[in-house]
Amino acid sequence: MAHPEKKIGSLKKLIYILLLSVSSISWSQKEWINAAVNAATVTSNDVFTYQISTDCDCDIIAPNLSAFDIIDMESGKSKSFSSFNGQSSGEQCTNTLTYLLRGKKKGKFEIGEAKAKCPKSKKSSTSINIEVLSADEVHKKAQGEAPYYFNLETNKKTAKIGEPVIIDFFMFTRARPQDITTITSGNAGGNFRQNLFEETSQGFSFPVYQVKVKGNDYYKIHLRQEVILPSAAGKLVIEPYFGRAVERYEVFNAIYMEGYSNSITIDVKDLPSKRPDNYYGMVGDFELTHAISQTTIAAKHAFELTVKISGTGTFNLFKDPEFLLPESFGATPDEPISNLKISENGLTGDVEYTFILTPIKEGKYNILPYSFGYYSLKEGTFKSVATESFEINVTPGEGGDIEDPNNNGGIIVEDDIRHIHKNNNLFTLSGFFGGLFFWLLILIPLMSVFIFFLIKRKKSRLTDGEKVAQEQREVKKTVAKSVQDIQKSDTLNIRQLKANLDEYLITNLSLGRSQLSKSSVSSKLQEKGCDDKLKSDFESIWSKIEMAQYAPISNENLDQLAKDTSTLIKDLNKIL
Prior knowledge:
- The strands form 8 sheets. Strands 22, 24, 25, 26, 27, 29 and 30 form a 7-stranded mixed β-sheet that branches.
- With 576 residues, this protein is of the alpha+beta class.
- The protein has helices at residues 11-26, 135-142, 436-460, 464-488, 494-508, 518-527, 532-548, 555-573, and strands at 33-37, 41-43, 47-55, 59-61, 68-84, 87-103, 107-111, 115-117, 122-124, 128-133, 148-154, 158-160, 165-173, 179-184, 192-195, 208-213, 216-229, 234-238, 242-249, 254-260, 264-269, 279-292, 296-298, 303-313, 329-333, 337-343, 346-359, 363-367, 371-376, 381-386, 390-395.
């Protein structure tokens, strides 16, 4: 649920930041502790910030937070200098512990005293009261009344296991936003989920409609459409989605419209209990075809066995085919060729598997059929598809001799050394005219023109993949330089640092701007083969940048954050 008072540039957040800053300065000469939140009234979908601050010599003991879900936690230390009447009062080191929390249920709750164990004494903060409103109640009331709100819709409330469910995420707003910066999908219980919007494609824009809600005009912006394939029976809860849009940009800030949607519950029905032995979760409609390159072959020679699975359904659950082969057969699987596309009906297309088989001994062999079972949504029953059995006749053979195409009549290459004759009379005319320098002056300009047109032609004939790679190289250089400039700048800007990191990730990981989240980027980095340390470094930097938008950060810490970001980008450049 969105609250206008939650805008980043709002007075309430400025007071919150000022409170923490003033607290740090006023207690710079003695042991102290302070605790604050950025919102005292939230809905059960909202994430709010709770921060504890004390001196660096003190250890923080957090209160009991069991009434809330802990979304994230970040600790850190920062140094700052304070002055009074032009006189420096010394360096202040602040130890902070910051939580991102969400209320579990409706009610009024107390966050107890935070404690600090300091060298000379123990300190305690004041307790804080938090009121958690019902997200569903607030969401219903906001529809048609609030300046903006977010809504989650679905095409069905009941589905069978494996049956596609469509989830649509909308923003309703009276003022058309200047930009969409963040879209985060809520938890879907680990089920397969795929975005149907191709946000990374050139020219993509979010669909926008003009609608009336309770007599008021709204822009209805379609932020995301996803298909989910439920994998287990029971209540599937789609947790609230989060959206953030820019209402307007200001000189040093931006006014955001952000909030959470409602949640959705899908009743997932189980499949019939009587299932075939070769069933392991496939739901949809499928076909199975196969081909074998030859049925008679000499021993120690290879042949190919190809299996293609096509159709529509839960390809995400498909297991690689396994054939029962004779012991004397060697088998090497090729990488499967996938031609799958996502649609409202789920995964559609085909996957082709090729096996390179090499019989070692002569004889007649039988390769048993391969099969798998699936549940047909169209017919409402279990079905099975299978290959045929194969009879392979293996004749005597010693394996294929590979001829050397460079072996000229059996001559051993190392010993076939021919003298390379020099022609010192290449330029036969004496003096300047006709000499080497003369010809160089003639040929170099002509070669330069030829190379120029060759490069220009090559650029114009670049494939889409090559153009993307070229764009990625350019962005890598630009972003790396920009982050270094931020480090050298006297006025560090967290917004500029975030914008540069976002641009780098969008381009090099092929992500849509609205797909940017810590979890989605971490998944992409894992796909690219990044090690755990690099993923951990990214997640730490991402969390610090996110925290810096909600809680105060010193120039020294921001400078260190810029350095860490620059190092991260250099490390990522070695892999991406």
